[in-house]
Amino acid sequence: MIQLEHRQFFAERWGFVVFGTLGNVAEDILKFDFSNLKYSLGTGLRFKFNKEESVNLRADLGIGIDGSTGIYFGIEEAF
């Protein structure tokens, strides 16, 4: 799997993110099919809740290969 993400703050506490993921799974490395990769794209908004600890509140919108969407809320970043 490959995942890319860009975060950018445009104000003291407000920022945005754009991200993309490409990958697939298989029960065995020899059965991995590179011709059937899945992808998703998305964007999100960040609010720096605690500047001293760099704690962000997150709201993200993800769009899958089949057009499905998901809205995700969270505290802090995954990485």
Provide structural commentary:
It contains no helices and 5 strands. It has 79 residues and is mainly beta. The mean pLDDT is 93.
Structural class designation: mainly beta
Return the average pLDDT rounded to an integer: 93
Distance between the termini: 16 Å
Overall number of domains: 1
Radius of gyration from CA coordinates: 16 Å
The helicity comes to under 10%
Strand percent estimate = over 45%
| Discrete helix count | 0
Coarse morphology: elongated
Largest sheet: 5 strands, antiparallel
Low-confidence stretches: none
Quantity of strands, as a count: 5
Q: How do the SSEs run, as a string of H and E?
A: EEEEE
Question: Strands across the major sheet, in which order?
Answer: 1-2-3-4-5
What labels would you give this structure?
0% helix
Task: Provide a brief overview of the structure.
The protein has strands spanning 2-9, 14-23, 38-50, 55-64, 69-75.
Summarize the helices and strands and which ones pair or pack:
Elements lengths: L1 E8 L4 E10 L14 E13 L4 E10 L4 E7 L4
Antiparallel strand pairs: 1-2, 2-3, 3-4, 4-5
